[in-house]
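queue> holo job accepted (adenosine-5'-diphosphate-glucose)
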Amino acid sequence: MTSTRKTFDLVVAANRLPVDKQVDEHGNVEWRRSPGGLVTAMESVMRSNPGAWVGWSGDAGEAPAPFDEDGMHLRPVGLSAEEVRDFYEGFSNDTLWPIYHDVIVPASFHREWWAAYVRVNRRFAEAVAEEAAPGARVWIQDYQLQLAPAFVRELRPDVRIGWFNHIPFPPVELFAQLPWRAALLEGLLGADFLGFQRQADARNFVRACRQLLGLRTKGERVALEDGSGRRVRATAIPISIDYRGLEELAQRPDVRARAKEIRESLGNPKVLMLGVDRLDYTKGIRHRLKAYEELLLERHIGPPDVTLVQVATPSRERVEAYRSLREEIEQTVGRINGELGKIGAPAVHYLHHSYPREEMAALFQAADVMLVTPLRDGMNLVAKEYVTCRHDLGGALVLSEFTGAWHELHQAFTCNPHDIEGLKQAMLRAINTPTRDKERIMRALRRRVADHDVQRWARRYLAALDAAPDVPAPDPRGGGGAPVAPHESAPSATVREGPLTEGDGDPVGATSRGAGE
Ligand code: ADQ
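queue> job finished
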């Protein structure tokens, strides 16, 4: 059977579509472009390649029909309410997320969540296989879609498959806890090229393949032993932001005026500190508040001279760990203000909202000290956005060494957020360092982001995908659009027990309970 359906040379698959659904009071549906960095990056890439984007619309239920938006073909994937619970909130955000972030909170393991993860990954792969032109480039995003590369390869061995991990990839000792570890690795090994935020993440992945699957590895390459002779490359290509676009916004007179207005409305403090995070336990908000509270108690600083604005975007509110974090943060803020605030001058301004880009840019310009203190973070775009908005060379960035961003922005005021004394010192240094020195640091940080923007990231990623070690097989459908048979199980989790290579210590158990548990 041949089909005349239009197919695409570039297919991006991500958990979410790059648009948000808006319904007006008359029930009319409108799709609005979501402002994320990935969308901006892809916009420039897709302008030169006709592209499709496969993703979930964000609502439970049947997938809306595919549609075109701003030159992109959007292919929604439907998730039932149970799949939102089991695939998204469950396996993605309550199993994988904690394991991939150093188990800051314990991970939950449920076999029915895994079953939903397999099912949804397969559904994404089927949609990708239908949208991809012969020999297309397929770019799969993030931890929610780790099985999709192998599923896509089974359906379409003719396409080039890349995957990018936006979050850290854990050390093998943590990854090995996952009952489905072998199936996850084999899912990823369906790709030709795997991109990570840091070289350490790529190394963790390669080491997991060696120790848990017994595969041979050399440097950044993993050699498969499935008879294909394929090699998969894993390396770091750190993500960035749209520097030029954001800087232009931050230069706008209305944004500058708003920054002044924000400071005025806070009583023109001498030092305005700022935290901006999704309300997530990885972001180190509790540690930041503790350090700040101690600085106030020890009278190093105090309102009205110094104040802290903490913006905490609502996130994953149906997952228990997020609900209890929110309660704890809100209680802590209440206590600090109750004990250390003054009339008209609270010590902490806590805002649990999302804001438009203009308001974020104004906040960044208003802040003297930006506190980015995650316990673990794949990259952290807020750090890069802050320095981009400081075209005046004002401000100081306190940055955790456990963020991907620190590997690029290490001239910042570095902190280890677990070390509360050290964090307090970094905050005081950010306040007290002479302006000249802070300007010099800010100039260096800005130069780094300007030279390594998100457009460069996307170009580098696709060039690496094109140069991946192996040449794809011919299109099994002979270039036609025949529907492909649905695949019934997770990528086979057959584990080859093999000798370790490169002298890496003992394997962390070279067996697996395999897929389907
Ligand atoms: P996130 O964990 O979501 O991303 P981050 O990189 O900081 O973290 O990006 C958050 C984005 O949301 C930023 O662009 C920020 O400006 C925006 N934002 C935050 N609070 C907001 C608010 N109240 N209103 C409006 N916008 C707000 C994951 C990984 C990161 C990795 C990114 C990209 O966890 O480590 O950097 O993907 O790869």
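queue> The first helix runs from residue 37 to 48.
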